[in-house]
Design a protein that fits this description.
Helix content is 48%, strand content 13%. With 186 residues, it is of the alpha+beta class.
Length: 186
């Protein structure tokens, strides 16, 4: 599978299916309220999207792959959730300990939310959810680079374009498995 064909719903599709009605209810209600009254519903939709996308990552960066290899970590990063971000060890920045790995939404939640709100029916929402690329484990340094380029809240030209500008190379689970197998053979 090519990196561009990867989608969050390829794994745990049942979760996405369960959320379609919830997300449609939120978007429909938001569309029918004045802008100044919809803020709490947008917050609720953001939480629903975080839960929807919180089951797993779709990608890891090559930096995360190298970290796993170099530290001989006995884990599959595609099985980890946000709460397990410390599994890949710490990094010290300004005398403060942070997780090396960052749980990064390839399309920021706000941007994803706004794209869903603009849709007119449940089928369009389902299609958009099923195309959502998902989340990536990237290094703290890569995350800082994305932010310094202005890509914290938006991804003009798509996430792959922004990641490329930040020098981030991604692997999907199939590519990771092949790389692990290849590394074990050498």
């Amino acid at each position: 599978m090519k990196i561009t064909e990867s989608a969050h719903t390829h794994k745990n599709n049942h979760i996405a299916e369960a959320f379609i009605n919830v997300i449609y209810a939120y978007t429909n209600a938001i569309q029918n309220l004045p802008e100044d009254k919809s803020r709490p519903l947008k917050g609720g939709l953001d939480m629903a999207l975080r839960i929807l996308t919180g089951s797993h990552v779709t990608f890891i960066s090559e930096s995360i792959f190298r970290r796993i290899q170099e530290h001989k970590l006995n884990l599959n990063p595609f099985d980890l959730i946000w709460e397990q971000r410390h599994s890949m060890g710490p990094i010290i920045i300004n005398n403060r300990k942070h997780s090396y790995a960052v749980w990064e939404h390839t399309t920021p939640i706000r941007e994803f939310r706004e794209s869903l709100i603009s849709l007119q029916n449940k089928d369009e929402i389902a299609q958009t959810i099923n195309k959502y690329p998902g989340v990536a484990w990237i290094s703290r340094e890569e995350n800082n680079k994305l932010n310094s380029l202005g890509f914290q809240r938006k991804r003009p030209g798509g996430f792959l374009n922004c990641y490329e500008k930040a020098g981030i190379k991604l692997l999907n689970e199939e590519m990771y498995t092949k790389s692990i197998t290849k590394a074990k053979l050498h």
